Description:
The structure is a single chain. By secondary structure, the protein is mainly α. It is built from five helices and two strands; from the N terminus they run αααββαα. Strand 1 (88-90) and strand 2 (95-97) form a beta hairpin. Helix 1 (7-33) runs antiparallel to helix 4, helix 3 (67-84) packs antiparallel against helix 4 and helix 4 (99-116) packs antiparallel against helix 5.
Amino acid sequence: MIGSFDWSAFIDAIARLGVAAALGGVLGLERELSGHWAGLRTHMLVAVGAAVFIVAGTLLGADHPDAVSRIVQGVATGIGFLGAGTILKLGDQQEIKGLTTASSIWLAAALGTAAGLAAYELAAAALVVSLFVLAVLRPVEGRLGRSHHHHEKPPGAHDPKAK
């Protein structure tokens, strides 16, 4: 039994899952340092979970050529439910919080998916672009008056207090 352990497959899996954890961790660290709900560990676990599904799917791939494609679809759809749990509509003020956090959780799954596929260049490029969007564009968005703290109602929204 112990002689049949495939060390090269194990090392490959460690590399893919390790890259997923690292990429998810960088994304999660940005969210954590910014004081958002889902942080370091959440993003790491989402990325690693997505990578596990992908690596498992590649093991099925020889017998089922569309298995990986179906798993990617399942991860992309399924993670939406976790992300949806971070979105809150507050009161009657049309204030919605958590959209960026939900998006970053979805993105962590995408990073894990890319790492699980050993598409490391794609995963690293996506992380760089994402960090630019999250960290660099946040102050720009604030200066434009469109931050997540903005409480103005969209045009045409009904105000129940107006007579």
